């Protein structure tokens, strides 16, 4: 497809250099296919986003992201609401957006080929203020875990979150939450509230198993106030999505979710959103992504 153009947004530090290697592999493949390709490496997140937006405005055929969910988040801010599709080359810690889309996470070459050979698929995104997110917005215990995990340089992947969980368990306390789900009000003490556009976060935790990228709805998982011992029993079930059968877990679906809890902050796609209150809305078919056929 001579004359087609792609930009590859890369976090060179992701995966201890794996993202840069993945980007280089993608560029070689694109060049062999006759594509013109540029690589975008920002000095920081804001610079990366500015570069990505410039590429989209210039009319690239695909914006590819080599990295983890943090870089995917930057890519989503650049392409959401446009006709430019996003291609994801997983090379980070969590890779949960790629997991939810069925994009190969252990085969860089196969993921990179989707830039050229993939099928364009339109999926929903969550929107909170001016930020788009693809996976899960978390608040309460899980946002504290994410905050701690993001500050850790070791270990990688799921083990990092497991250690962060143990550290936050020592400070576990119930939090008063107020939720409005399409106008219906729910008030309760809870350990955490997660609002999912997709099922996974935290490196494979299936926190919102009812979430579907094509449903036009958000899936809300609430873990009511529980003690440390009970939470330790429940949490391992999150990886298979089996926690929702526990009597202290509630699930809901809604198009718009308003969430509030004093002194609590939220994370979405592993990135800090800010202090609550927050309003989260599902925007159907907000972004095009390149996925396996």
**Uncertain residue segments:** none
Q: How would you sum up the major sheet? A: 11 strands, antiparallel
Strand content: 25-35%
What global shape is seen?
globular
Q: What portion of residues is helical?
A: 25-40%
Supply the helix-strand structural class: alpha+beta
Average pLDDT figure = 92
Order of helices and strands: EHEHEHEHHEEEHHEEEHEEEEE
Backbone CA Rg: 19 Å
Strand segment tally: 15
The separation of the N and C termini measures 19 Å
Output the number of helix runs: 8
Key attributes of the depicted protein:
11-stranded antiparallel β-sheet; alpha+beta; globular; 293 residues; 29% helix; 4-stranded parallel β-sheet
Question: Can you put this structure into words, describing what you see?
Answer:
There is one protein chain. Helix content is 29%, strand content 34%. It is α+β, with helices and mostly antiparallel strands and 293 residues long. The two termini are 19 Å apart. Strands 5, 6, 7, 8, 9, 10, 11, 12, 13, 14 and 15 form an eleven-stranded antiparallel β-sheet that branches. A four-stranded parallel β-sheet has the order 2-1-3-4, sandwiched between helices. The mean pLDDT is 92. The chain contains eight helices and 15 strands. The protein is globular and about 60 Å long.
């Amino acid at each position: 497809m001579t004359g087609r153009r792609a930009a590859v947004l890369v976090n060179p530090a992701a995966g201890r250099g794996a993202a840069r290697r993945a980007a280089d592999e993608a560029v070689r493949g694109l060049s062999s296919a006759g594509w013109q390709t540029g690589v975008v490496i920002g000095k920081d997140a804001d610079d990366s986003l500015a570069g990505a937006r410039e590429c989209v405005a210039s009319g690239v055929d695909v914006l590819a992201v080599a990295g983890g969910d943090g870089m995917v988040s930057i890519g989503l801010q650049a392409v959401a609401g446009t006709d430019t599709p996003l291609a994801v080359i997983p090379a980070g810690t969590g890779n949960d957006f790629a997991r939810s889309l069925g994009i190969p996470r252990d085969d860089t070459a196969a993921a990179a080929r989707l830039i050229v050979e993939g099928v364009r698929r339109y999926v929903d995104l969550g929107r909170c203020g001016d930020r788009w997110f693809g996976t899960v917005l978390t608040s309460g215990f899980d946002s504290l875990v994410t905050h701690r995990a993001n500050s850790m340089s070791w270990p990688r992947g799921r083990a990092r979150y497991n250690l962060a969980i143990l550290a936050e368990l020592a400070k576990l306390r119930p939090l008063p939450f107020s939720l409005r789900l399409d106008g219906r009000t729910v008030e309760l003490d809870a350990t955490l509230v997660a609002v999912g556009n997709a099922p996974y976060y935290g490196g494979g935790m299936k926190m919102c198993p009812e979430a579907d990228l094509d449903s036009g709805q958000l899936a809300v998982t609430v873990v009511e106030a529980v003690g440390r011992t009970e939470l330790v029993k429940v949490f391992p079930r999150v990886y298979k999505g089996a926690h929702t059968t526990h009597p202290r877990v509630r699930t809901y679906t809604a198009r718009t979710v308003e969430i509030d809890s004093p002194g609590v902050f939220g994370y979405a796609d592993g990135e800090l959103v800010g202090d609550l209150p927050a309003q989260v809305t599902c925007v159907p078919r907000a972004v095009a992504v390149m996925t396996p056929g």
